[in-house]
Amino acid sequence: MFEKLHNRVFGFKGSLLGFDAYDEFRFTVAEENPSFGYLESVEDPNTGFIVTSPFRFFPAYEFAIDEKDKAELEIKEPEEVLVLSIINVKNPFLESTVNLMAPLIINVTNHQGRQIILTSPYAYGTKERLFKPAPKESGEDAC
C-alpha cells in the first residue's frame, strides 16, 4: 500500500502537535507489515511515529479537509491526498490505539503535509483501538 512512498521526505512545517520544532519527516514502510509505516524526523532520528492509513482499519472513517488546508497543501485532486494516523503503541501490540481526531494530511505530489484537528463531532476519538478485541467464548466467564 505504501511502497511507492518508501524513503520519501515530507515537510510538515512544524504542524505535528507537540513536535513543532521538527519540519521534515522521512517515511519508510514497515518491513514486518506493509500496512504500517514509520515517520522519522530528519532533524532528530530519535523522534518518530508509527503510522497507518485509518481507512485500512476503519473503512467508514471520513471527514472533510477544509479549503484553507487544501490551499496550504496545494491539493488540487483527491488522488494527491494521503491520510495517515499516528498509532500509540501498547504492549501487547494488539492493544494499540490510533488517533483519528488528528490525522496527517499529505500531498504526495509536492511532499507537503500537515496535521489537522477535527473539531466537528465525529464517531471516532484520539484513542481508538486499532484491533477489535476478540469476543469471549461461551462459558469463559463461568469458571
UniProtKB/TrEMBL annotation:
- Similarity field: Belongs to the FliW family.
Q: Which Gene3D superfamilies is this protein grouped with?
A: BH3618-like
State whether it acts alone or in a complex, and with which partners, per the record: Interacts with translational regulator CsrA and flagellin(s).
Please describe what this protein does: Acts as an anti-CsrA protein, binds CsrA and prevents it from repressing translation of its target genes, one of which is flagellin. Binds to flagellin and participates in the assembly of the flagellum.
Subcellular location(s) of the protein = Cytoplasm
Q: Which UniProt keywords apply?
A: Bacterial flagellum biogenesis, Cell projection, Chaperone, Cilium, Cytoplasm, Flagellum, Translation regulation
Question: Does the keyword Chaperone feature in the UniProt annotation?
Answer: yes
User: What name does this protein carry?
Assistant: Flagellar assembly factor FliW
* Gene (UniProt): fliW
| Coiled-coil residue windows | none
Q: Which GO terms describe its biological process?
A: bacterial-type flagellum assembly; regulation of translation
Q: Give the taxonomic lineage as stored in the record.
A: Bacteria, Bacillati, Bacillota, Bacilli, Bacillales
Q: Which GO terms describe its cellular component?
A: cytoplasm
Origin organism is: Cohnella lubricantis
